[in-house]
Amino acid sequence: MRLQSDAEPGMRRNKLVYESPIQKHYESFIECLREFCEVRSDVAVYSFYQFVVDAVNSLNKQERILIYERYLHKDHYKSDRQHYLAMDITSQKYSKQMDPARGKLIKDLGIEGLQLNIPDWMKR
Protein backbone atom coordinates (compact mmCIF):
# COMPACT_ATOMS: atom_id res chain seq x y z
CA MET A 1 0.00 0.00 0.00
CA ARG A 2 1.40 3.37 -0.98
CA LEU A 3 0.54 6.68 0.62
CA GLN A 4 -0.10 9.92 -1.19
CA SER A 5 3.13 11.31 -2.64
CA ASP A 6 3.56 14.00 0.02
CA ALA A 7 3.36 11.35 2.75
CA GLU A 8 5.99 8.99 1.29
CA PRO A 9 8.96 8.08 3.48
CA GLY A 10 12.18 9.60 2.18
CA MET A 11 15.89 9.77 2.92
CA ARG A 12 17.30 12.97 4.40
CA ARG A 13 20.87 13.19 5.72
CA ASN A 14 21.13 9.39 5.56
CA LYS A 15 18.12 8.91 7.84
CA LEU A 16 14.72 7.69 6.79
CA VAL A 17 12.14 10.38 7.54
CA TYR A 18 8.40 10.22 7.52
CA GLU A 19 6.16 13.18 8.18
CA SER A 20 3.09 11.71 9.84
CA PRO A 21 0.10 13.82 10.84
CA ILE A 22 -0.87 11.04 13.26
CA GLN A 23 1.25 10.01 16.24
CA LYS A 24 2.05 6.35 16.74
CA HIS A 25 -1.11 4.80 18.16
CA TYR A 26 -0.03 1.23 18.92
CA GLU A 27 2.25 -0.33 21.52
CA SER A 28 3.80 -2.85 19.12
CA PHE A 29 4.22 -3.45 15.42
CA ILE A 30 2.30 -6.75 15.71
CA GLU A 31 -0.70 -4.96 17.24
CA CYS A 32 -0.56 -2.39 14.44
CA LEU A 33 -0.18 -5.10 11.79
CA ARG A 34 -3.25 -6.98 13.05
CA GLU A 35 -5.48 -3.93 12.74
CA PHE A 36 -3.83 -2.89 9.48
CA CYS A 37 -4.82 -6.25 7.96
CA GLU A 38 -8.39 -5.99 9.25
CA VAL A 39 -9.20 -2.32 8.77
CA ARG A 40 -7.03 0.06 6.80
CA SER A 41 -7.71 3.16 8.83
CA ASP A 42 -5.49 6.24 8.56
CA VAL A 43 -4.26 5.63 12.11
CA ALA A 44 -3.22 2.06 11.28
CA VAL A 45 -1.51 3.04 8.02
CA TYR A 46 0.45 5.96 9.52
CA SER A 47 1.38 3.91 12.59
CA PHE A 48 2.49 1.03 10.36
CA TYR A 49 4.79 3.33 8.42
CA GLN A 50 6.16 4.92 11.60
CA PHE A 51 7.09 1.53 13.07
CA VAL A 52 8.89 0.65 9.84
CA VAL A 53 10.69 4.02 9.71
CA ASP A 54 11.85 3.65 13.32
CA ALA A 55 13.12 0.12 12.64
CA VAL A 56 14.93 1.18 9.46
CA ASN A 57 16.59 4.08 11.28
CA SER A 58 17.99 1.62 13.84
CA LEU A 59 20.10 0.10 11.02
CA ASN A 60 23.50 1.38 9.97
CA LYS A 61 23.78 3.84 7.07
CA GLN A 62 24.47 1.25 4.34
CA GLU A 63 21.67 -1.04 5.56
CA ARG A 64 19.20 1.88 5.69
CA ILE A 65 19.97 2.81 2.10
CA LEU A 66 19.64 -0.81 0.92
CA ILE A 67 16.27 -1.31 2.62
CA TYR A 68 14.97 2.09 1.47
CA GLU A 69 15.93 1.51 -2.17
CA ARG A 70 14.63 -2.05 -2.23
CA TYR A 71 11.32 -1.64 -0.40
CA LEU A 72 10.35 1.90 0.61
CA HIS A 73 11.21 4.28 -2.23
CA LYS A 74 8.19 5.06 -4.41
CA ASP A 75 10.13 3.68 -7.41
CA HIS A 76 11.51 0.72 -5.44
CA TYR A 77 12.97 -2.35 -7.11
CA LYS A 78 10.48 -5.15 -7.63
CA SER A 79 13.02 -7.91 -6.97
CA ASP A 80 16.39 -8.51 -5.37
CA ARG A 81 17.73 -9.31 -8.82
CA GLN A 82 16.74 -5.90 -10.22
CA HIS A 83 18.31 -4.25 -7.19
CA TYR A 84 21.69 -6.02 -7.29
CA LEU A 85 21.93 -5.59 -11.06
CA ALA A 86 21.30 -1.85 -10.66
CA MET A 87 24.00 -1.77 -7.97
CA ASP A 88 26.31 -3.67 -10.34
CA ILE A 89 27.25 -6.32 -7.76
CA THR A 90 26.94 -10.11 -7.65
CA SER A 91 23.98 -11.85 -6.05
CA GLN A 92 26.32 -13.31 -3.40
CA LYS A 93 27.66 -9.89 -2.40
CA TYR A 94 24.11 -8.51 -2.38
CA SER A 95 22.90 -11.34 -0.12
CA LYS A 96 25.86 -10.78 2.19
CA GLN A 97 24.77 -7.15 2.63
CA MET A 98 20.98 -7.48 2.48
CA ASP A 99 20.36 -10.62 4.56
CA PRO A 100 21.76 -9.14 7.81
CA ALA A 101 19.83 -5.89 7.18
CA ARG A 102 16.58 -7.82 6.72
CA GLY A 103 17.34 -9.91 9.81
CA LYS A 104 17.89 -6.81 11.97
CA LEU A 105 14.73 -5.21 10.59
CA ILE A 106 12.67 -8.31 11.35
CA LYS A 107 14.11 -8.45 14.87
CA ASP A 108 13.50 -4.73 15.52
CA LEU A 109 9.89 -5.05 14.35
CA GLY A 110 9.44 -8.08 16.61
CA ILE A 111 8.19 -10.33 13.83
CA GLU A 112 10.79 -13.10 13.85
CA GLY A 113 9.05 -16.45 13.58
CA LEU A 114 5.88 -14.82 12.23
CA GLN A 115 4.24 -16.90 9.53
CA LEU A 116 2.07 -15.15 6.97
CA ASN A 117 -0.75 -16.88 5.18
CA ILE A 118 -0.88 -15.15 1.83
CA PRO A 119 -3.91 -16.02 -0.31
CA ASP A 120 -3.10 -17.41 -3.76
CA TRP A 121 -4.74 -14.45 -5.50
CA MET A 122 -2.22 -12.10 -3.84
CA LYS A 123 0.82 -14.10 -4.99
CA ARG A 124 0.53 -13.05 -8.63
The secondary-structure class comes to mainly alpha
Largest sheet: 2 strands, antiparallel
Number of strands: 2
Mean pLDDT: 80
Number of helices: 5
Distance between the termini: 16 Å
Q: Approximately how much beta-strand content do the residues carry?
A: under 5%
Helix percentage: 40-55%
- In total, the number of domains comes to 1
For the biggest β-sheet, the strand order reads: 1-2
Task: Report the radius of gyration as a whole number of Å.
Answer: 15 Å
As residue ranges, the low-confidence spans are: none
Shape by Cα distribution = globular
Summarize the structure.
With 124 residues, this protein is mainly alpha-helical. It contains 5 helices and 2 strands.
Structural commentary:
This protein is 52% helix and 5% strand. A hairpin with a 2-residue loop joins strand 1 and strand 2. The longest helix is centred in the C-terminal third of the chain and has 19 residues. It has one domain. Helix 1 packs antiparallel against helix 2, helix 2 packs across helix 5 and helix 3 crosses helix 5. The chain has 124 residues and is mainly alpha-helical. It is globular, with a radius of gyration of 15 Å. This is Phage transcriptional regulator, ArpU family protein.
